[in-house]
Amino acid sequence: MSDIKITIIDREGEAHVVDAPTDMNMNLMEVVRSFELAPEGTVGICGGMAMCASCQCYILNFEHMLPEQSIEEEDMLDQAFFVQDNSRLSCQIPITEELDGLEVKLAPEAP
Amino acid sequence: MIKTDILIIGAGPTGLFAVFEAGLLKLKCHLIDALPQPGGQCSEIYPKKPIYDIPGFPEVLAGDLVTNLMEQIKPFEPGFTLGERAQTIDKQEDGSFIVTTNKGTKHHAPVVVIAGGLGSFEPRKPPIANIAQFEDKGVAYIIREPEVYRDKKVVIAGGGDSALDWAIYLADIAKEVSLIHRRKDFRGALDSVEKVEELSKIGKINLITDAEVTDLQGENELENVVITHKASASEKEIKETDYFIPLFGLSPKLGPIADWGLEIEKNAIKVDNAYDYQTNIPGVYAIGDVNTYPGKLKLILCGFHEAAIMCQSAYQRIFPDKKYVMKYTTVSGVSGFDGSKKEAKKEVVKSIN
Known about the structure:
By secondary structure, chain A is an alpha+beta fold.
């Protein structure tokens, strides 16, 4: 198992190519937090339980096999703001080798 | 005025366990929480989710953990002010504090402990630029008095149970009810969705889907909502209304505590973790997820640890002349304020010694 490359565009529009480990049981929200790509307390507020939408991101390339949305994720995105057709909760996307080359953009912080 | 030894703001797991630790030191506690029941997030958001990192519980449902904590602290007879949010804090000449809630309930204590977790849960406000200027002038995030809407035009936004239920309820009261949702599908209970569809067919609810309210208009009070449809984002629909009620669930905010003069860093309250989790205001402590310090871990078990340390310090603050020696419950047992006593059989104690 090796690291994979993921491009994350932060809320200021800056793109960061990060090496995300596939052997630490991390999800995309935790990668964003560990690389400090958003201020503390603005991403993953609920801890990754699909209950706050603070980690919402837009998937920019679709050749990757992303997990299907759970009912909890759909419910949360239904109540969230700035939602687009390509919105996902990054806490619901486990880091796997299949995601090598994934590009995402963080959604704006909700008021 | 409610008087207590330790006033705890936040009745989540950390706040509840602090009652137990305080009780061992013969200190009485009273808890304030904005939610109508104790348990914080564990009760409100994820009561059926299993937690795996509580020592001694290989697996415990969040709701069951709260039930157990309530049972554990029962002998210490804590008081509760529920459904009210701690609003202001006033330091008294003797160093004690009076904390007043948003409903005016006053609490007096020599020690205040903030165990507010992620903060109080407040309605999630949609990102409409001028929404704040219409709050209480046509915009409401919570329906308190449905009669206010009798014979009025009401626009509700949202797709969950709350939006559906209120649209159904107000359909009988209001002059006109519109329900706006950004998708065609609703996530609420099936019978509520069906009821809304029925009411829509007979013209009692004006159902507008694949659309969002993106702007508000009015002179002093709300007069119109501006609706943007997904299909034609450039064309805006203007809808006359008396009220706009966005119902998008709750999100945690630090709330009025943020204005108490506490040192705040990264949306959390800074404390002295090397000693006792006291804030920059002597006599005010912060424990659990609401605090921050180097190396902080936002875990329930860390909140429990912080509660124990905090109580020892609070005891010394309340009784500066008394010397208290930390005891083990295995040795000294647990004596409740209700007269109950739990202790190990003497022969067991003897064999340990």
